[in-house]
Amino acid sequence: MFADIRRITARIAEKFKRRFYGRTFNCPVCHVELAVVDAGSNRLLVCPVCGVVIDIEEVYGHAVPVVLEVELFRPQPKARIHPLATHVPIGLYPFAVLGAVLLMAASLARLLFPGIEPLLSRAPVIADATLVLLALSVGLSVLTFASGLWDWNRRYRRRSYRQIRLKIAFSILFLVLGGFAVALHASGAVFAAGTGLVDLGSTMSIVLAVVELALLAAGMVVIATLGHVGGTLVFGR
Ligand SMILES: [Zn+2]
Fold it and tell me: Is the pLDDT of residue 237 over 80?
């Protein structure tokens, strides 16, 4: 089953990638996949990972990368703040999602098995902890985003790379999705303040719980993509 899921996600990711990156080629030195469209009108492109200057030759309709030289005076910061900072939101976010999913499952379980009610007395604590994790993850991602822009400005000299455009767009998307999820959780409209659980007697609460779950799930996909694409900019492939 896992092999099927992996195959399906790989196919979706490939389709999405083709659409966004267009034609691609691999850097002959570090093997990172780069978009042909990022080369300037002179067909030159500096590899964001290893810093070689590549001339993209068109040979019978194929993009053939030829390494010309290495970019001199390329900033090589000792402390790479962005790749380090990125692990704070990525590390905390899944636990916030897990907390919300557990609270929703407990709300459903309470309806189906009223006997477990005494076990749920600590649900408000979990609801608060989940909110703290979510707020920290989304809040600290602002610093990650800022350090990424700083890196792009300094190390990559604001050159156009499809990967970086994707990361900027997805970072904004994550902040928007995460911001709404935090606001919805903090409002108490999904997880009631007294019980920490979803009031399944109220249609409004159920609808808002579904919205919260959708926001969190979309945020998970967005942050995983950000991490994956960021990884290619650190490790090549
Ligand atoms: Zn390279």
Answer: no
